[in-house]
Amino acid sequence: MTEITAQDMVRLLTESAGDLAFSGDAEDVLDLTFEDLGCDSLALLETTARIQQDYGVELPDDLATQLATPRSLMEAINGTPAKAC
Fold it and tell me: The pTM is what?
């Protein structure tokens, strides 16, 4: 499985939530809360749907909405095996 990088995570969040309330290096964004970035629960669900579609990794919706930062979401995704197509 290809691991999702910081750049991938920021791109996916931006595509799902629109412009993030932060400009800077992708690594710096990882430790800000989703709330601080302007991401609501709908944006997170859209992000996890895109991750499932693009990377074959499915996270339970309740887990995705309990995670507080992009880093925690990225670590959960990278620790979950991809489903075979």
Answer: 0.81
